[in-house]
Amino acid sequence: MRGAWREASGWAAAVAMSTVIVGQVASTARSELLFRDGDSLIVALVARSILEHDRLDWMFSGVLFLPETAAYTVLRMLLPALSVMGVLAVNAVVNLVALYGAIRLAAGRRRPGRAPVAWSLVALGAFGMLALTETSSSRDALEPASLLLTTTYYSATVIGAVLAAGLVRRWFDARASSPRGADLRHRAGWSLLVGLGFVTTLSTATNPLFLAWATAPLLVLLLVAVHPRLCGPSALRPLLVVAGGSILGMLARIPLSAWIADPGTGYAHPTELLRSAEYYGALAGDRLITPAGIGAAALTLALLLACVLRTFRPESRDGVSRAGGMLLAAYGWFTPLATVVGAILLGTHAARYLEPIAFAPVLGLIAHPRAIRFPSPMKVVAAIGALLLAAGAAASVPRIHAAATAPDPDAACVVDWVNASGRTGGGQFWTVRLPKTLLEDPAQLVQVDHTLRGYNWLANRTDFAAGELTFLIEDAQTVRWQIAGDPRPDAVIGCGRYRILDYASHPLEIGPQRS
Fold it and tell me: Which contacts qualify for 226-233: CB closer than 8 Å, 24 or more apart?
């Protein structure tokens, strides 16, 4: 009973912490990324298509957003009174709570002398502190922790990677605690391997980036663990499960290829590794010139150091948690290092690919979650802390509500005009996504490029059946239009940061699709 109370208290504290984190991040310019970014709205658009029983012919990038779409759709059904932004805010809290769940699984079972619940909360708190330092509205800023709060910047992949590392750790724990030793016919061991295979398969199928964030690091660490002085041949079973699950996940993408615009090859440009190094170096430089960035860097370095120390000088002296804890700690420092090096070698240019530098190091805190005895007065301090956390969560709800319901008169102007027109128009990706999400009929806005070709990227291809457009929407992010004949619009309607170019008298033809 006492153990159940501790677990319930841990989950309650995680919900409160998550609410505080979302409330703070949503109150900064980062809310632009949470609620109005072009990429961040794809899950909301797909979920709407599902719930309204539209014909689904979506074209995705290399990521299918399967778990993210499932989670958002369930929340949308459970919370019909909330706006799209309100559901996105709730989804952000859910993502953080899910991360706590993954961390709690990785921390291992409760046993005398261990405090996995407390240390899991400490790990979530450390991740939250990183997120609280991130206030930029730019999706390209080196601020990876807060990306977990979105529905599209790989939140499910982050949680899947932590789950995979945690299941490997739990497998070693189960093996060591089994009375039969190396006999893996023990039910707990087998169920953990099945769970590991499922997580690996699903995560790889929905996002191949899982191969870089989880599969490759775990395979390397498990290969090292095969050494007789470490775990020996027993490490082969989780190694084979991780490898097999990843292969199955990639095979599962084959029948889904009709909905994948880029299988992944378009993201790699090895010849640009020097430019990639300069790019990421510049992002790091921009981050380190701010006090918040310096604080985040210091915390990250401290967490990495803790991972290294707990890899080579594990605090656990018993065989039950030593091997699994060492591997989890090693994952905490090896994965960020491998991810950064790999991203540069592949010539990538996207800060979101470096998310392991935020979530992996916190796993060092739960590698060996040893209970610490505090003097009795600390119980009073803990109680006061719990009350303050509850008060902070309560105070954060209005902040989240205010951020999610903040008026956007410019977008409202566009939406009202398009709804009233009853016509079909178009716009470019970064411009059109927000108004499209808010329309009564999203099909009234078709996603095109600057030459009016159908831009088939994170879009429902049924939209292109319209054939022609009677108006265009543009803003500061719009690339200069290149339209044959350079036709003049009948009228130009100003909507703050948007402009509507009305071509009612001579509609524009949608060109061939491209992605």
Answer: 230/323, 231/172, 231/323
The Cα angle at residue 152 between residues 151 and 158, in degrees rounded to 5: 85
Q: List, in sequence order, the alpha helices (H) in 313-364.
A: 322-345, 356-359
| Per-residue model confidence (pLDDT) at position 124 | 97
Full-model pTM: 0.94
Is the separation of the CB atoms in 360 and 332 below 8 Å? yes
Rounded Cα distance between 61 and 457, Å, is 6
d(CA 14, CA 261): 37
- Using the structure block, give the residue that is written with the tokens 């319901």: 405
> Rounded to 10 degrees, what is the CA torsion of 41, 42, 45, 49?
-170
Residues, the chain? 515
Chain segment 140-160, per-residue pLDDT in tens: 999 999 999 999 999 999 999
Distance from C-alpha of 498 to C-alpha of 495, rounded to nearest angstrom: 5
- 427 phi and psi, to 5 degrees? -175, 165
List the beta bridge partners of residue 495.
498
Place of tokens 């709060």: 149
User: Two tokens at 460?
Assistant: 């429902």
